[in-house]
Specification:
Blueprint (H helix, E strand, L loop, with lengths): L1 H11 L2 H66 L2 H11 L4 H21 L4 E8 L2 E6 L8 H6 L9 E2 L9 E7 L6 E9 L1 H10 L5 E4 L5 E4 L17 E7 L6 E7 L1 H50 L14 H57 L3 H22 L5 E3 H19 L3 E6 L8 E3 L4 H10 L8 E10 L2 E9 L3 H10 L12 H16 L4 E7 L2 E9 L6
């Protein structure tokens, strides 16, 4: 049941196979109905034709055999009118002379030979009996076996020949009682026996394959199969044969002709022919339907796949559309939709890209003046002492390198090792000012050197760590920069010391998101700018966050790992 349900579900989910099955059924059902109707009608006609042919054969055979039996009965009647026969029988009752018997036998033998010539040589023997005694026999056949049966055999008219309803030695016999015309006393019985083998040959000459001659009780008296004589004939119907029965015109016998059911063989061939025609027609319809529907369903299937790809934002045009039907119009409409979607995406992408570039430039323009202002302020502080004045040239040199790096044209991204060298220059500038109050540590493995990050991304964060961390610690502080990898992302941690409550409150306030229209100053402005730059360039999954832990503030920057030059 599960396999059937799965198969039906699979067919229902595919237009090609659904239409092929539907057209197959629509073709097969009419073909089957027409074939069955033709089969039924043809079977009736062929059965009727076969029955008519068999009936014609039976009519000819029964007429011929009827004429034969009637002729022999008439001949037996002529034997009974022999005056010498009556004289012999009457003298036999009253003892007579032997010469009469011999003369009678000679006359009857001559008459029998003459009848065989005119009617046909089918006589086995002629018997004259009186009760249980055979008076004489003409012919070389067997003596009669059932003498008493001829005596008691019923008949409608005793003075007319009557074909017996039984056989004697498998021979058909005809009986005629002889009576005294004056007294009506029975003188004897004449019995004519037919040769079984000669009758069988007669049926063969008449082209009767299965012919039987029966009495009223279906006992076989003669037929094409001599071994069945004396047995009962079965009247059970059989589809493979046709059984026809016809009554004799002048006797109580009946003729049975069993013919092969030609319609059965013909209809078997006809059925096979109809089956093959239906099968080939059905197969042809399936192939043609399959070929036609594939020309429709293949573009639709391809169009469906392209629509699914479009759902994944993969816009591919439908090519090789050669037809001009409705499916082609649908494909052309899809191509127009894809082209319009591409144009809209390209316009939106360019618009967003220009917007992001403008915002990045705005942020970078903010970073450079801010950094320059703070550094010049540090130089002014150094110039207040003779020892600080001694370091001003080196500070100016490092400041020049940083400014040259910040205003250099080209890509907005640099290798991480280059960005970290600028950070280290910036820390060294402040080292001249804070001396032992400032300590820093940079952990950068060689494997991270070539990773690309936005230019001047870390400097504002280090500047915040100095201004809001180290500068407010009475005994100074330490800044640690650690570069690591987490879940295939680049993670840069900037950790600095904090002591006073005001700095901690500043850090906490930077953790609260801005309200619309509000901008942060101090500690949060640099962090916000860095966070916005990252999100604009790489998406919402990346950015910079700050966390407070005991006497340390930690800024964590998460970026995608992009190798320089890829």
């Amino acid at each position: 049941m599960t396999i059937t349900s799965s198969l039906l579900g699979w067919i229902r989910s595919r237009l090609l196979y659904k239409v092929v099955v539907l057209y197959s059924l629509l073709t097969l059902i009419p073909l089957s109905v027409v074939s069955l109707a033709f089969y039924s009608r043809s079977q009736d006609l062929l059965e009727r034709r076969s029955t008519e042919e068999a009936q014609q054969v039976l009519n000819r055979a029964s007429s011929h055999v009827d004429d034969l039996l009637a002729a022999y009965a008439q001949e037996l009647y002529q034997f009974s009118r022999n005056k010498l026969l009556h004289s012999y029988l009457m003298e036999r009752v009253e003892p007579g002379k032997l010469e009469v018997k011999e003369a009678l036998e000679e006359q009857l033998r001559y008459r029998l030979e003459e009848a065989s010539t005119t009617i046909g040589d089918y006589v086995d023997s002629l018997h004259l009996i009186n009760g249980t005694e055979t008076l004489f026999q003409i012919g070389d056949g067997y003596p009669l076996e059932y003498l008493k049966a001829f005596e008691i055999m019923p008949a409608e008219y005793d003075h007319t020949p009557q074909w017996a309803y039984f056989t004697d030695k498998n021979r058909m016999v005809c009986r005629l009682k002889l009576e005294d015309p004056v007294t009506g006393r029975q003188l004897g019985i004449l019995v004519l026996a037919l040769d079984t083998d000669k009758l069988t040959a007669l049926y063969g000459n008449l082209e009767l394959a299965n012919f039987q001659l029966l009495n009223e009780d279906n006992l076989i008296l003669s037929g094409t199969a001599s071994e069945r004589i004396g047995s009962l004939f079965s009247m059970k119907s059989n589809e493979s044969v046709v059984k026809l029965i016809q009554k004799s015109r002048f006797s109580g016998l009946q003729y049975v002709y069993v013919a092969d059911a030609k319609p059965a063989a013909i209809m078997k061939k006809q059925t096979l022919f109809s089956f093959y025609v239906t099968l080939f027609a059905w197969a042809g319809v399936i192939l043609i339907t399959y070929w036609l529907m594939r020309r429709i369903t293949i573009p639709l299937t391809k169009l469906t796949r392209l629509m699914r790809r479009a759902g994944r934002e993969e816009y591919v045009l439908m090519d090789e559309v050669s037809s001009r039907d409705e499916v082609a119009l649908l494909c052309h409409g899809y191509n127009q939709m894809v082209n319009l979607t591409r144009e809209l995406i390209e316009k939106n992408y360019k618009s967003e890209l220009l917007k992001h570039e403008a915002e990045l430039r705005s942020l970078q323009m903010y970073v450079n003046p801010h950094f320059l202002y703070n550094t010049l302020a540090y130089i002014n502080v150094l110039s207040a002492t003779p020892e600080g004045v001694r370091h001003i040239p080196d500070v100016n040199q490092r400041l020049t390198n940083i400014l040259r790096f910040s205003i250099s044209t080209g890509d907005n991204t640099v290798p991480l090792v280059k960005e970290m060298s600028i950070v280290e220059m910036y820390l060294q500038i402040h080292k001249y000012r804070y001396k032992d109050r400032l300590a820093y540590e940079i952990q950068l493995s060689p494997g991270f050197h070539s990773i690309s990050i936005p230019k001047l991304l870390l400097q504002p964060l280090v500047e915040n760590a100095i201004i809001h961390g180290v500068d407010r610690c009475a005994e100074g502080g330490k800044i640690r920069i650690i570069v690591d990898e987490d879940n295939f992302d680049l993670v840069i941690t900037i950790e600095n010391s904090i002591e006073d409550k005001e700095t901690q409150n500043t850090v906490k306030s930077s953790l609260i998101p801005n309200r619309p229209g509000e901008s942060k100053r101090g500690f949060g402005s640099g962090l916000k700018n860095v966070n916005d730059r990252i999100k604009y360039q790489y998406g919402a999954s990346y950015g910079a966050v700050i966390a407070l832990n005991d006497n340390y503030a930690t800024v964590t920057v998460r970026l995608p790992i992009v190798i320089e030059g890829e």
